[in-house]
Every structure is written in structure tokens, then in C-alpha cells.
Amino acid sequence: QVQLVESGGGLVQTGGSLRLSCAASGRTFSRYAMGWFRQAPGKEREFVAGISRSGATTRYADSVKGRFTIARDNAKNTGYLQMNSLKPEDTAVYYCAAGGTVVLGSSRPPRSNDYDYWGQGTQVTVSS
């Protein structure tokens, strides 16, 4: 089992920045790929960014490419999502996830059911 706890969400103005953190405990964090998803009210959960076990490979949704950066520090059992140039449409609950069989290089973006463990989510609100 892996327990994940997100932090760093909040209210920010358009164009602002936030850094989300995902603290992992339980099994060795480096054994799992990590991802960030988000879910806005009335919408399905969507993939935002993913990173491989070592951190060497990343993948982003087109909507955040060039604005968001995913990273991880396996020594600290922590993952991060740096979000810059935030837009109102980025408003959502953000979830971090860990999975043992995630493939970042496939033709389709990762899906929710590719990940095995989930955090409780952190709210990000971008005001216009």
C-alpha cells in the first residue's frame, strides 16, 4: 500500500503560480510512476501530467504543456507539480496518483485506472 497526501492548493489570480506537493508513505515511492489528475465540477477526471519511476520520462496534457512541470524527489518520497501562468480553466481538484504499470510513452495518455493509489485531492481555484 502507498498513502498519498497532496498539499499546496489554494486561490490564485490568473497568471499566478502554485506548487503542489504529494507526500508518499508506505511502500517504496520509487517503485511507482506518479501522475497528477484533476477534476472540475461536472467534468470527468482528466490526466494532467505523469512522471516515470526514475523521473527521466514525463508526459503532459496538451492543455498544460509549457505551463506545468512535474517532478519527483525519491529521496524525500515526494512528487511535485509546478503550475505557472494559471488560467481560470485550471480550476479543479487536483489529485496525485501512483501506479506500478503506467506507460507514459503509449499513443494514449494515461488513464485513471492505470494508477493504483490516490490522494484525497487539493483544491486549486484560479480567479479571473
What does this entry look like structurally?
The protein is an all-beta fold. Helices cover 0% and strands 49% of the residues. It has no helices and eleven strands. The chain has strands at residues 2-7, 10-13, 18-26, 33-39, 46-51, 58-60, 68-73, 78-83, 92-99, 117-118, 122-127. The strands form two sheets. Strands 2, 4, 5, 6, 9, 10 and 11 form a seven-stranded mixed β-sheet that branches. Strands 1-3-8-7 form a four-stranded antiparallel β-sheet, with no helix packed on it. The chain is globular.
> Helix content range of the residues, please?
under 10%
| Low-pLDDT runs | none
Number of helices: 0
Q: What best-fitting shape do the alpha-carbon axes yield?
A: globular
Spatial separation of the terminal alpha carbons = 40 Å
> What is Rg?
13 Å
Order of helices and strands: EEEEEEEEEEE
**Strand segment count:** 11
Mean pLDDT: 95
Major sheet, described briefly?
A: 7 strands, mixed
Strand content: over 45%
Please identify the structural class as seen in this structure. Answer: mainly beta
List the helices and strands and how they pair.
Elements: E1 2-7, E2 10-13, E3 18-26, E4 33-39, E5 46-51, E6 58-60, E7 68-73, E8 78-83, E9 92-99, E10 117-118, E11 122-127
Parallel strand pairs: 2-11
Antiparallel strand pairs: 1-3, 3-8, 4-5, 4-9, 5-6, 7-8, 9-10, 9-11
